[in-house]
């Protein structure tokens, strides 16, 4: 619009900033001044912003070549679309992200020594989503082990021990209810909590998630009532079981949100919450001193079926289109150092991904470690449905009283339609 | 509501100083509904984390705490983000007023010419294009043209608002009598001079309106800068603040402080400008 | 168009003929070329920044693009899928109903507020300032604040007062959640409509009312026969723009209900943007194209309804 927009931007910005005052440290002048190259580093999860910022400052001080630009704001889809994504990222690895990988958007890191230190079963976890053949594109950095969070004091008070079968679990809930204690705190207003909690736990406990998705992907367009496998068919039973959990929730569960659930747990308003380790620091924030523990939700009568829900909380990746691949690799190396990676996982209650990672010792998640090491886990079934299908909303409708058959049939047709137009 | 409105007209002409008391009272009551959410925001943001965690909106903060602001301020590097937002907004406001009023003037004075009339309908129709349709191609195009920065965002704001603004200016221009213009032309003024000396000043009230809309749209917009700007250091306030606004925290006080900080600049700017804006609006009445 | 190089400063006569009301022959002899300069650079930028991307986006609706990497042409498969998708049909019905209710409520309130605010009232300036204030705040923030109010404050108050119906959050009620959306959209979009009505109302000359009063017209009939026709152009602008805005409702919906509970408040714009972010780019472009056509039809219908009252279209 103007003859030299950039120079104008520069001047006016400087003027404004002089007024604003606090700019010197951030250094807008580009890479010229210090002779360092700018490397853009994207991070998801704002809860850990402070921690990552501290790590970046450390990395900046440790080497003279690169300066790392901390990015929490960029839109990744837009970045990839204009072929200008961040140079390196530490991000929650999920289906949406796997799309960039599947189409070759992420570079191969298999030659890095760090890649070989990652547990094979955890590397494979990333491949539950479509991989790009022949490349190690993502390095899992932390894994969340999720299950039933329970208030140890309440369990002790009522002389309850951790249940290992469905009937033990329901008996325990009934006992709590008889004693006037809400067994499970529901936060149905945030649909995602239904997905990650009662839905993923019952599904994962009753069906083989990975095999199921391989089957319906294979069937594709034909998924529906007449197919060998379909959502309506294979999920009917787990969903019915899931709905049996509803009476054990407090009355206003439909109106409560994730945040309120954490506060309620801290205040001992309920004995259990179906959440992941990310909720534990939030519960601790209320400073009530309530002690928490975790156990897998039993959904069958066989204790051998017990499994926990895992997901790749954070993974490192470098796009093919990175401007500074070398600087990006420096960062990956830095983040993969045991003292950096393990400290994060210990402090934030996640599980390590490397062969030599120390086991979790925090009493809140200590019960997760053995399941994790014995590969008794699944990825959440909800994590394989693309965002374009509003499954969280369908599930919420079911929980609010809609017939499961109706919503599952809709999911079938959405899935089939997706395959039809692919 | 209707009492207020219908009793308006007669009062207006009879007594100069007599106020319409029922209308005033009704409007004051209505104003409370505007104030409540704002009060809650300020109130919550001044609490400590421990007090805010209970989620009660109307208990007063005790003790009064500024922690939330300090935290929100340092996490978002607010001064830098503010300067980027101000830069984008300034270009958008000036650009929208000037470019749209010129376009509207050309359209109104040449309405009988098919080319101009159709241009107008073209703009109107394009106004209905849903943003997502153009989003991705725009992302690619601004990337190719090197406009994946605040300048590109400001330019896109101007263009996006063109149809709406032209519509407003066109409606207003039709109420300006042509006779004023003709006498000026007889005195030998060019179209250029007529526009700048006569028409543009007369457009004051509508320019004020367009200016406010332009300011608010570009100030508050999240989607466009988040998609278009590629350098995270050149991001705007709403985009950076969005990281406080997800649902993964029960620090209500920090969240509300960030809401307040997101609102505050626009509210302050609006309060400073409102004298000019409101009088700009009422200027029309004098005419 | 005629290419006569008129000398701008002296060209007073041709301009006279270009006054809007009298219908001139479409090829009036002279046009000051500066008018082209006024309009066409803007038009060109508009075409480059909006029309061209829209055409490109429309082109993607015939592909299986995910918004990144390679894609293939899939013909009209996406369109067939759109019409088969019951979720999308539901979103269209909800969006249309929601937009209709909101546009009526918002315009009615804004119009009467504007009448009140242009009357002889005390604190006129302060009140105007206050009523315009909600416009200043971005939709997503408004949504978060109201979400907090609806899910905590309102039920708490209702419980103290013993009002059962409101003691549960209306956001958790599939039949009532849309009301919350209407309230919040009205709260945040009354100001722009209000400003436009005020700007319109203050241009109505007082003499008109005086003349009517002398003729003995009642306040109601003055409102109906004088005020409304005089500001009808602004009513048209506000309803068309309002409708367009509510049809595209996105950020408040996401912040407040996220389309729920269940799928009770899922809007079309939400489906489109979610799909766009969810790697379903080509399909949602087809959806958006259908949506565009429907929006245009509605706008034309609105214009037809108000034909003659509109301040444009001669």
TrEMBL record, chain A:
Pfam families: SBP_bac_1 (PF01547). It comes from the Bacteria. The keyword Transmembrane does not apply. Residues 1-24 form the signal peptide. Keywords: Signal. This is Carbohydrate-binding protein.
UniProtKB/TrEMBL annotation, chain B:
It is a multi-pass membrane protein. The keyword tRNA-binding does not apply. It is found in: Cell membrane. PROSITE patterns: ABC_TM1 (PS50928). It comes from the Bacteria. Keywords: Cell membrane, Membrane, Transmembrane, Transmembrane helix, Transport. Its main location: membrane. One of its GO terms (biological process) is transmembrane transport. Belongs to the binding-protein-dependent transport system permease family. The keyword Cell membrane applies. Residues 82-273 form the ABC transmembrane type-1 domain. This is ABC transporter permease.
UniProtKB/TrEMBL annotation, chain C:
CDD domains: TM_PBP2. This is Sugar ABC transporter permease. The chain crosses the membrane at residues 34-60, 91-115, 127-146, 176-202, 223-243, 281-301. InterPro entries: ABC_transporter_permease, MetI-like, MetI-like_sf. Residues 92-302 form the ABC transmembrane type-1 domain. Keywords: Cell membrane, Membrane, Transmembrane, Transmembrane helix, Transport. Residues 1-27 are annotated as: Disordered. GO terms for biological process: transmembrane transport. It is found in: Cell membrane. The keyword Membrane applies. It comes from Brachybacterium phenoliresistens. Residues 1-18 have a biased composition (Polar residues). Belongs to the binding-protein-dependent transport system permease family. GO terms for cellular component: plasma membrane. It is a multi-pass membrane protein.
């Amino acid at each position: 619009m103007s003859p030299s927009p950039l120079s104008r931007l520069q001047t006016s910005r400087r003027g404004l900033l002089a007024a604003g005052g606090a700019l010197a440290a951030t250094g807008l002048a580009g890479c010229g001044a210090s002779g360092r190259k700018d490397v853009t580093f994207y991070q998801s999860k704002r809860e850990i912003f402070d921690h990552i910022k501290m790590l970046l400052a450390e990395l900046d001080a440790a080497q003279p070549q690169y300066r790392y630009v901390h990015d929490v704001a960029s839109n990744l889809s837009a970045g990839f679309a204009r072929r200008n994504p961040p140079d390196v990222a530490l991000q929650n690895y999920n289906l949406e992200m796997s799309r960039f990988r599947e189409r070759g958007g992420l570079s191969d890191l298999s030659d890095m020594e760090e890649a070989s230190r990652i547990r094979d079963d955890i590397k494979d976890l990333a491949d539950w989503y479509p991989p790009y053949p022949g490349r190690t594109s993502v390095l899992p950095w932390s894994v969340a082990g999720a299950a039933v969070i329970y208030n140890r004091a309440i369990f002790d008070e009522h002389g309850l021990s951790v249940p290992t079968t469905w009937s033990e679990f329901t008996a325990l809930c009934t006992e709590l209810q008889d004693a006037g204690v809400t067994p499970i705190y529901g936060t149905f207003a945030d649909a995602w909590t239904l997905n990650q909690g009662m839905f993923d736990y019952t599904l994962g406990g009753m069906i083989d998630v990975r095999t199921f998705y391989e089957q319906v992907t294979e069937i594709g367009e034909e998924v529906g009532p007449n197919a060998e496998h379909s959502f309506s068919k294979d999920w009917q039973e787990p969903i019915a079981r899931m709905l049996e959990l509803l009476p054990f929730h407090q009355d206003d569960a439909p109106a409560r949100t994730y945040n309120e659930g954490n506060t309620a747990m801290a205040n001992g308003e309920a004995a259990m919450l179906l959440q992941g380790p990310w909720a534990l620091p939030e519960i601790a924030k209320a400073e009530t001193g309530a002690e928490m523990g975790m156990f897998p939700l039993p959904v069958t009568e066989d204790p051998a079926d017990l499994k926990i829900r895992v997901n790749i909380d954070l993974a490192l990746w470098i796009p093919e289109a990175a401007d500074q691949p070398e600087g990006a690799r420096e960062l990956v190396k830095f983040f993969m150092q045991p003292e950096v990676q393990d400290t994060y996982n210990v402090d934030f209650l996640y599980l390590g991904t490397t062969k030599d990672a120390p086991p979790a010792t925090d009493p809140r998640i200590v019960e997760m470690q053995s399941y994790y090491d014995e590969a008794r886990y699944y990825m959440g079934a909800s994590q394989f449905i693309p965002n374009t299908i509003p499954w969280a909303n369908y599930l919420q409708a079911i929980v609010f009283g809609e017939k499961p058959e109706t919503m599952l049939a809709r999911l079938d047709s959405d899935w089939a339609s997706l395959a039809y137009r692919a | 509501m209707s009492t207020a409105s219908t009793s308006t007209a007669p009062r207006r002409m009879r007594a100069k100083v007599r106020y319409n008391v029922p209308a005033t009272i009704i409007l004051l009551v209505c104003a409370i509904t505007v104030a409540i959410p704002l009060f809650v925001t300020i109130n919550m943001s001044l609490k400590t984390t421990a007090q805010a965690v209970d989620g009660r909106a109307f208990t007063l903060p005790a003790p009064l705490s500024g922690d939330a602001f300090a935290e929100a301020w340092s996490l978002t590097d607010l001064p830098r983000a503010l300067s980027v937002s101000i830069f984008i907004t300034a270009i958008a406001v000036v650009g929208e007023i000037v470019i749209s009023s010129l376009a509207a003037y050309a359209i109104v004075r040449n309405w009988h010419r098919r080319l101009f009339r159709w241009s107008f309908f073209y703009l109107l129709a394009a106004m209905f294009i849903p943003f997502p349709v153009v989003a991705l191609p725009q992302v690619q195009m601004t990337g190719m043209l090197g406009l994946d920065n605040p300048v590109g965002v400001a330019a896109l704001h101007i263009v996006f608002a063109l149809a709406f603004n032209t519509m407003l200016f066109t409606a207003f221009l039709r109420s300006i009598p042509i006779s004023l213009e003709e006498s000026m032309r007889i005195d030998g003024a060019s179209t250029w001079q007529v526009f700048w000396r006569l028409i543009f000043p007369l457009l004051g009230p509508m320019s004020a309106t367009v200016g406010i809309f332009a300011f608010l749209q570009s100030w508050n917009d999240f989607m466009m800068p988040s998609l278009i700007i590629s350098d995270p250091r050149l991001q705007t306030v709403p985009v950076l603040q969005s990281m406080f606004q997800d649902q993964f925290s029960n620090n209500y006080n920090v969240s509300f402080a960030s809401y307040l900080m997101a609102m505050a600049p626009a509210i302050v700017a609006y309060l400073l400008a409102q004298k000019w804006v409101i009088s700009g609006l009422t200027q029309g009445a004098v005419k | 168009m005629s290419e006569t190089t008129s000398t701008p400063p002296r060209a007073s006569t041709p301009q006279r003929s270009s006054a809007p009301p009298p219908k001139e022959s479409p090829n009036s002899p002279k046009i000051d070329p500066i008018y082209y300069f006024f309009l066409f650079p803007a038009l060109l930028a508009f075409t480059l920044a909006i029309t061209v991307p829209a055409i490109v986006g429309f082109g993607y609706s015939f592909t299986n693009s995910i918004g990144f990497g390679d894609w293939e042409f899939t013909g009209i498969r996406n369109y067939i899928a759109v019409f088969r998708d019951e979720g999308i049909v539901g979103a269209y019905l909800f969006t249309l109903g929601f937009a209709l209710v909101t546009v009526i409520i918002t315009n009615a309130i804004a119009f009467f507020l504007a009448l009140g605010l242009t009357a002889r009232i005390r604190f006129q300036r302060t009140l105007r300032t206050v009523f315009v204030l909600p416009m200043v705040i971005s939709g997503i923030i408004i949504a978060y604040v109201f979400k907090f109010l609806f899910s905590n404050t309102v039920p708490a108050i209702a419980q103290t007062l013993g009002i059962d119906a409101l003691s549960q959050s209306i956001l958790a009620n599939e039949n009532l959640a849309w009301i919350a959306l209407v309230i919040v959209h009205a709260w945040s979009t009354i100001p722009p409509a209000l400003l436009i009505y005020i700007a319109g109302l203050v241009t109505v000359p007082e003499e008109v009312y005086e003349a009517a009063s002398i003729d003995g017209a009642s306040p109601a009939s003055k409102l109906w026969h004088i005020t409304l026709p005089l500001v009808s152009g602004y009513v048209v602008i506000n309803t068309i723009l309002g409708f367009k805005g509510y049809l595209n409702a996105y950020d408040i919906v996401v912040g407040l209900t996220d389309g729920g509970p269940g799928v009770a408040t899922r809007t079309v714009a939400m489906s489109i943007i979610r799909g766009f972010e969810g790697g379903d780019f080509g399909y949602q472009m087809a959806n958006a194209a259908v949506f565009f056509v429907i929006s245009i039809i509605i706008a034309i219908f609105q214009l037809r309804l108000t034909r003659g009252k509109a301040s444009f279209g001669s």
